[in-house]
Amino acid sequence: MTDASHPAQTAEFLPKIVTVLREGYTSRDLRADALAGLTVAIVALPLSMAIAIASGVGPERGLYTTIVGGFLVSLLGGSRFQIGGPAGAFIVLVSACVMAVGVEGLILATFLSGFLLMAAGVLRLGTYIRFIPYPVTVGFTAGIAVIIFASQIRDLFGLTLAGPEPGEIVGKIETLWAARGTVTWAAVAVALGVVAVIQGIKRWRPGAPGMLLAVVLASVAVAGLGLEVETIGSKFGALPNLPPAPALPVLDGAAMMAALPWAVSFALLGAIESLLSAVVADGMSGARHRSNAELVAQGAANVGSALFGGFCVTGTIARTATNVRAGSRGPVSGMLHALFVLGFMLVAAPLAGFIPLAALAGVLAVVAWNMAEKEEFWHLLRSSRADALVLVVTFLLVVFRDLTEGIVVGFALGGLVFIARMSEAAEVAGAEAPDVTGDRVVVRLSGPWFFGAAARLGSVLEKIADRPREFVVDVSEVPMIDSSGARSFLLLARRMARRDGVLVVAGARPALRAALEAQGLRGLPVRFVPDLSALD
């Protein structure tokens, strides 16, 4: 590493708050960040508890996650406006993890995922995570939206189940349908009222905290009318006034092996979700995030969250967008948002016991509807068969199989589509009607020459009836070549040698020529010329 490169590589991991402070941070900036932080905290309060309950843990753990994780994401992160906390995208994984290894296993998996995320950042993998194809992100986001909504049907209708609610969606729907006779119409009314209030405020007063106002109104209505609706207090008891003291999770070998697969899933989804959120913030603000610094911060936030009894932390798109729109000047607003939530726990935690679960289910139903990216989904279905295939396969795997499986398979399909399209971009001009001059045949290649296109060169000779003594390949329009593409030239050179002919490569750039010679062309009858005009 040179001295010149060291500062640039160090800056890659520099938290954005350092940059903001270096630029000059004034009291006016602090006032703007305080207002933005308060606005985001108002949005985060009901969402944090709703996501925690939907994930199969107590609402207090959602608040711990917001307070500790949200503070660390803003303090250490590589995005100027990122807001961290529990995210709806994790509901599926977290609830499945709780069912498989319990709450202690969830905390351990969160703890381990933090170190995986930090390692990904140190290894500079953040740049590559952003290359996930767009149909994959739309497919898994829409799939998550469907699963989030399905997870709220029980509380939306106030159903009483005969047994535990299955995690997989087919069994879930069957169980919920079997309990259709236990609908609590008061819960339905509360949920519909919350949705109506949120949508009404969004339309007529878009700057107002619709979710919080809807939950408050629902809580007052249930308490004032004495409605028989399940609340946070009736199900979980009173919320604590403070997060617990930090404590390490159980780190014995068996527990760690059981938690590790979940940790890998948390790290993968957390990296994708947080970097997508940072990209959204960049688009709204014109700023530019540091992806690897962001991954390191997300890792530290997950470790910190686990130490205080919280669960998965990631960048949250809705809260981050709210932060930007509220006039945030930098990471201080995210840190203050976490402190405002802590203030709520200190002052008003007992009031949370009056919140109806149907109200929180209504909030998440709205979240699921908003995150589904419906217009993008239909646009991709109509754009091309390949993109539609990637989209639908990802969506169906996320809904009916597994979130991580959907991402991995969708990414693989997207890669195959890309390879096929790049192969089509590589052209062999002159194969059908070769430029023949005496014993010489000239073929022109264009486009990237990699393993997806290499087979075309081997088939060129099959299309030429004559047996030329000199086969000229013009590569002046080939921008890159991989080892498979270079090997196709080696096979061609050997074939020409067996015919007592010679292969001529024209217009090869230095890097391309080096790749060809590395495959062993030096010992074969091969000539390199600068261009076609240099031919004898």
From TrEMBL:
Its main location: membrane. Keywords: Membrane, Transmembrane, Transmembrane helix. Residues 441-536 form the STAS domain. It is found in: Membrane. It is a multi-pass membrane protein. It holds the Pfam family STAS. The chain crosses the membrane at residues 34-55, 62-83, 89-119, 131-153, 177-198, 210-227, 259-281, 339-369, 389-419. PANTHER family: SULFATE TRANSPORTER. This is SulP family inorganic anion transporter. The lineage of its organism: Bacteria, Pseudomonadati, Pseudomonadota, Alphaproteobacteria, Rhodobacterales.
